[in-house]
């Protein structure tokens, strides 16, 4: 798939900009401990991130990713999860390698940037601030900003409207099938990062992403495109 110089770049958060799995695991395990349940390994929790806090908690209660219906204790567990995640939000979460540098180089290209995440809004801005990148984004759309979240395309369309750009002229950088489905339903191009959370690896093995690039590699590619656009007659 050919990369074009976009009007804006939108980013997923967990698994794309930030490796938040260590702190999400702490919060999940404190929540399970409150319910008298045994702790779960971080490697398993990594597979369950990407569809928002409610799905993460429901999967933790069920002990698996694929669930037909929410376990009965989900509502109460979610309230405990929120309390605990607020306490440990940025204890061990880190930016993926090259993200700060890649965002800085995209900003030099005058590209408006936004975050579109399924993470609840109470956590999005504080986490980005703690990691020193909140100022890079003109707009943040979280899992509870609208009545729907990814894979619904509405959060991506909402971000593009806030930036006053056409979503079909945007790139969406993400790590999950929800990101890919939301991007494609909205008419945006999906750039998948080559790391991220492994829950949808099998889906991408069958239907590869449009492009796979790290954030700094994307910045390099867009800088080169901007240069050649300037040189074009
Ligand atoms: O499941 C989550 O809360 C994380 O969501 P994100 O990958 O859309 O940032
Ligand atoms: Mg993600």
UniProtKB/TrEMBL annotation:
The active site is at residue 12. GO terms for molecular function: phosphoglycolate phosphatase activity. Pfam families: Hydrolase (PF00702). SUPFAM superfamilies: HAD-like. Belongs to the HAD-like hydrolase superfamily. CbbY/CbbZ/Gph/YieH family. Its EC number is 3.1.3.18. It comes from the Bacteria. This is Phosphoglycolate phosphatase. It catalyses: 2-phosphoglycolate + H2O = glycolate + phosphate. Pathway: Organic acid metabolism; glycolate biosynthesis; glycolate from 2-phosphoglycolate: step 1/1. Its cofactor is Mg(2+). Mg(2+) binds at residues 12, 14, 175.
């Amino acid at each position: 798939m050919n990369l074009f110089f976009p009007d804006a770049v939108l980013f997923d958060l967990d698994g794309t900009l930030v490796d938040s799995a260590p702190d999400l695991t702490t919060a999940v395990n404190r929540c399970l401990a409150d319910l008298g349940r045994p702790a779960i390994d971080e490697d398993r929790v990594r597979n369950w991130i990407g569809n928002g806090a409610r799905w993460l908690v429901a999967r933790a209660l069920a002990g698996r990713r694929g669930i037909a219906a929410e376990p009965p204790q989900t509502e109460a567990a979610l309230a405990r999860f929120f309390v605990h995640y607020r306490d440990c939000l940025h204890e061990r979460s880190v930016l993926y390698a090259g993200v700060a540098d890649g965002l800085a180089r995209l900003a030099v290209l005058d590209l408006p940037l936004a975050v579109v995440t399924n993470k609840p809004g109470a956590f999005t801005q504080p986490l980005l601030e703690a990691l020193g990148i909140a100022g890079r984004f003109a707009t943040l759309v979280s899992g509870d900003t609208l009545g729907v979240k990814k894979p619904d395309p509405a959060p991506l369309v909402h971000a593009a409207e806030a930036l006053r750009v056409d979503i079909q002229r945007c790139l969406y950088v993400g790590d999950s099938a929800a990101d890919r489905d939301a991007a494609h339903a909205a008419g945006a191009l999906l750039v998948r990062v080559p790391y991220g959370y492994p829950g949808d690896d099998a889906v991408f093995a069958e239907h590869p992403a449009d492009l796979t690039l790290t954030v700094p590699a994307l910045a390099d590619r867009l800088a080169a495109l901007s240069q050649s656009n300037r040189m074009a007659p």
